[in-house]
Specification:
By secondary structure, the protein is of the alpha+beta class. The chain has three domains: 106 residues, Aldehyde ferredoxin oxidoreductase, N-terminal domain (Aldehyde Ferredoxin Oxidoreductase,  A, domain 1); 76 residues, no CATH class; 227 residues, Aldehyde Ferredoxin Oxidoreductase Protein, subunit A, domain 3 (Orthogonal Bundle). 43% of the residues lie in helices and 7% in strands. The protein is built from 23 helices and ten strands. A four-stranded mixed β-sheet has the order 2-1-6-3. A two-stranded antiparallel ribbon has the order 4-5. The two termini are 24 Å apart.
Amino acid sequence: PWYTHSTLGGWFGPELKYAGYDAIVIRGKSDSPVYLEICDDEVRFVDARDLWGLDARETQLTLKERISSKAQVLAIGQAGENLVRFATVQHSEQNAAGHSGFGAVWGSKNLKAIVIRGTGSVSVARPDDLIGEVLKAGTGKRAPSVGVLRDDKKRLPVCSQACTFDCRAATSYGQTQDGRRVPGTCIGGMLLSNSGMENTKYIGDGVNVPPGKNFGIHEEAALHQACNSLGLDLWLRLVMQPWFIRCKQLGINEIRGYPIEPEDASWFESFLHQLANREGLGDIFAEDLIRVMDELEGELPEELIRLGRELEFNFGFPAHREGRFWDEEPLPFWVISAMMHASASRDPTIGTHQSSLLLADFLLADRELALCQFRVLSEKVWGYPDALEPTFENKAPVAIWSQNQHILIDSLPLCDFAFPQLVRSMENREEWENAEDITGDLNLALRLFSAVTGVELTRAEMDRVAERAFTLERVMLARAGRSRKMEEKTLSPHFKLPCRADGTLIDEIGFSHLLDEYFSARGWDHEFGWPQDEQLKSLNLKEVIPELNQHRRNLKEIYEP
């Protein structure tokens, strides 16, 4: 089985801790639909046949009415029940384990929901220190490049509930009918990153409306709410809609007899319901775009097949921050992204907003100034000044650091729009233009961790924890058959496409050199891209060595019969 992961914001995690648990493991499959109910030390599976067929929002409301208005609920919608490949697990109105298809995993187990009510508390080792650090952190901003380089008039208000960060995110997202923005929060949020919808049919605490090229704001809200209710990954719009539009441009108006109207919001909302219920055209595309390309190959122009495979180039995950479609990631940032894509189980850039990739905004705004600042920052963070030079060499340490930070952000946990504090907060563009050193407070997360737990760790020790976790993930991928040869074949064609920001690209030989550099820096072998025995021993993972070496022998027999 393939290994991957997904994360979500909201209040379910804290409630689990208040009930006295650190994790839940679900094994096996129920004979009929059930939900898991946890009320402190009382744990039971409950018949959920009356909930099967309800959408995720209806399920959550029903369970809150049944158990407690203070309960926190994870639930799947019809997409999860029908094993749609990109089905989500939903929480509240705006949070979801969106990528990776965990809704379908739950559906395969006949698990409709998990509801939890915890009445305990979590002690803090040094409350005064924690409050002090939070107050200091509250002067920060989401992604300094966003705040400094974009129009100041588009700023969102500071959230008075759980967030003191001056957030300038979501500037293209929705607002109320009378022009107001309604904040939504996440318990782990150090800044405001949700904007709400009010006075419409679609309501919620922070329903984010993704930017829509072709639809009005209320139509966008309807599509967003439909995805949340049905339990569909919102990113399907980013890949399927442009693919359908290209079909129309090439004169293809239907697929297997089903008409397509991707620039009609009503059609697209109907298509979402077809996806979730596996009906009509939706039953075909419920297998996900990249699998559909295999099925439709020979029926449609090759250009469309290639486009579908590029839109989901990373083992079915949508293209993201790799510089070819949606995000401007000039050299060296797309190279850093490529290394991460080649070694992760899913889109690796979701949790690396602050780790490095948003620094591209500075480079695009003023190349010479940014490069001067990057050299100072690189020397402090990675120990050498050319880490962010626009070249192909010496980028592995940045990619590895970013991946390790992603592990820490998800583990502590922290908001990935605020951590790590790679770049310090700046009030405006003028302050940025006059700054020689833009390096942020990279020890903030350590101090927060220490204040909460009482455990003192150095940055090197914390990084070691992250390296151990990431290495174990790689071993799990190896067990599933993932290897260098597969990664080169799957990913290298994508990076032969020119970067939309600067036109740079790399061929198969160059991509292979990138992997050599990355695997060497990780301590992995070059043949398979797997951790070596000595590294596993040094990370106290020696128990996985026998199985991993058996997989090596098996794979060699396949490659070299």
